[in-house]
User: What shape does this take?
Amino acid sequence: MCIRDRFISLQMITFISRKLFSSTIKPASAIPGLESVGINNKNILWQPSVGQLYEYAIKRAPVDPKTRQDIIASNGALCSYSGERTGRSPKDKRVVIDDNTRNEVWWGKVNIPLEPASFKLHEERVLDYLNLRPQLYVIDGYAGWDPAVRVKVRVITARAYHALFMKQMLIRPTPEEHAKDFQQLPDYHIFNAGEFPASAQIPGIGSKTCPTLNLTERKIVIAGTQYAGEMKKGIFAVMHYLMAKQGLASLHASANEGEKGDVSILFGLSGTGKTTLSADPKRKLIGDDEHVWSDQGVFNIEGGCYAKCVNLTREKEPEIYDALRFGAVLENVLFKPDTRDVDYENIEITENTRACYPLEYIPNAKLPAVGGHPKNIFFLTCDAYGVLPPVSKLDYNQAMYHFISGYTAKVAGTEMGIVEPQATFSACF
Assistant: This one.
């Protein structure tokens, strides 16, 4: 190929890429369904490209002056910062209780009920905030690799880093799929106003932080926390609810597949090794955290991975280390100011440093991310008190008992207030 042909080819690739994957600023009225859910902002980027999100992330300063500015690290990843909240806030999370959910949700310390009237006040404040922002970002994607049961999700956020995070964590539609599936209301909406505090005066909230799930109205409304993992876990909660109603099992587990098609799943709470162990160079990665087990086998819920990256090195975890490049998000990870080299050992902000990257950044990822019925099942336990032996082979009854009891520990940093491993019983993991 001559230089001229090469130049024309590059021009053509650039033109097609811009047409398919770039976005121009639009009013809410130009995006199907936005006005009907209360968004009337005039400056919205709908399905922006990764490059556009980088540009806006480093150009726009966070609202909270205590939140560090996003930067581009020397490896090409976007270093973003979530401010005060550097882990999930389960004690502040609320689920709307109404006639549809009253007898279908396991109410208690995990699912704390919120009355519909309080949700309405909370949602109105968040919508007002989003509509007054200089610019919003709208990301559309799927939850679930099985087309028969996948959920269409739309994310509306005021921070470019949150948009990039969900662009990589949801399953990205092709231009044809997007034109077909997102020209009407999607199944679920996420409204992320994380920089804006919730009102502690609203009955049932009582805190400036409140991620809220309304299963009847099919909405996730976030205020008072910029930690991106709240969006990911919000969709996981939705899938727990929806899949169970269809007789399918949602799993807090990673999954991979051997050369002979043998699938292994690894259950575990956040930070217990699901991502690390599933990224095996000799096996195909199906997914690192959230799956569904159906009559046909297992499928991943997500389009990306969300790895802990404290003390990450290429020698210990080469696949994950090399996945952290342009398009990846490094959350609350610091860098060396003179070189912009990432400092994975630095936990000045939090031990819960995180990395988000699309599945295809792992060389042996299996796409579509589906597999057969598991041949091997592992329970990963962070045993803070040495109760269990290092490795145990469980019989049928022991496996049932351990799955239901779920003895393990919460790992430092994954939730706000957890500073060292804390033993817990997490039923079904």
The chain has nine helices and 25 strands. Residues 1-21 have pLDDT under 50 and may be disordered. The first strand starts at residue 25 and ends at 26. Residues 336 and 343 are 6 Å apart (CA to CA).
